[in-house]
Structure formats: structure tokens, C-alpha cells
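Appendix B, example 12.
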Amino acid sequence: MLYILGDLIAPTATSEQVVKRLQSPRNGEPEPQICQGWWEEQILILHGLGRTGEPTELIERYGIQTTKTLWDAVPRSTVDWIRGLDFGFFELDCLLIHGSSVSTSDELTPETPPIHLLDRLLRMDANLLFCGRSGWAFQCEIQQAQITSSLTTLSQTTLSQTAAPQATVVSPRQVIGVGNVGRNSGQATYTLYNPYNGQVEFRTVRYGSSKGFG
């Protein structure tokens, strides 16, 4: 199976060409399973179809001109197709998603605190979380451990604990960054995962004249 974890489109004139290429696999090619990424969410917001009402994050990060360029680059027919894409996939014990189980904006990296990584895994009870938001290719493993949790409520004046602490044993889990295409000119990275033995491999493709696999 081939999974593409979002950000097919961007504020560029080639966005529509990428979408059409993926919509029509050639003979012998697997049909890609595609989920929404950050750019897909932004174009849905611009068309009033997103999870939030205003493109605040897009404008603050990239400005009005880039926002207009994105609008012009993606026709309404493609917006309707993007609207039908999944937020993520859960296959076997693996969550495949652009950002995380929190949002498409959630950027997980090797520098993310382990407790935050574990939270994103436990929200969907996944043993492996494959994500693409950061664009990094990485593999972080959380070893088996015991977590103690308690419930605290907030009154008008004080914090009070309302339940006894509970201990939970967490099995080993992993967060894997799948890489990216185009962030570094002439270089693309992707990830291979074998569900039968749990092996993860990172690959690099150098594209352009006289380039190939590395």
C-alpha cells in the first residue's frame, strides 16, 4: 500500500498537476491512500469548509499574498475532492496522519517531549504513529513504562484531587516521521514499513537530470 500523508497542494501553479497525477495512477502503480494535510485544511478554510472559520493561521504565517496565490492555484473541483479525503488512517496498529491525532498543525519531531508523543499515541491507542507535518525522517521509540495519572478539579479557590491516582503500564510504541518531497531542492525522502517484522527503512530519491535513488 502507498500512503501519502497530506500537503499535496501548495501555493504553486503545479498543485493541480500533482493532484491529477495522483488521481490517475498508471498501469501497475498502487492507488495511493491520501489524507488531508495542513495546506489542504487551509484551502478548505478559505472556502468555508474547514474545521475553523477563519484562515488566521495561514495569514499569520504566510501573509495575504500567499493566501491569494493558494486560492488561485486550486480550482473548486479539486477543493471538493480534497473535502472527501480522510483526516488519517488506522491500519493494523498504525495511525497514519499528517500532523497528529490532535490536528494537522501539530508538528511532531525527535525534539517533542516524550510525554506529548505518548499522548498522541494513546489518544487513538496506536502502537505506531506515522506523521508528515515536520517533513523530517525520524524514528522515536518510547520504551515500556508505567504512568501514574490522577483527576484534579478546579473550584473557585483551590485545586482538589477527586480520584485516587491510577497506574497504567504502557507497552513500547513509536512515532515515525515519513520525510517529505520538495523541502530540499532535488531531494525527496520516504519511508518503508514492513508490518510483518516491524522494520522501518528511510529512503532518499534525488530527482533532476542524471539523478536517482540514494
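The first helix runs from residue 15 to 23. The two ends are 22 Å apart (CA to CA).
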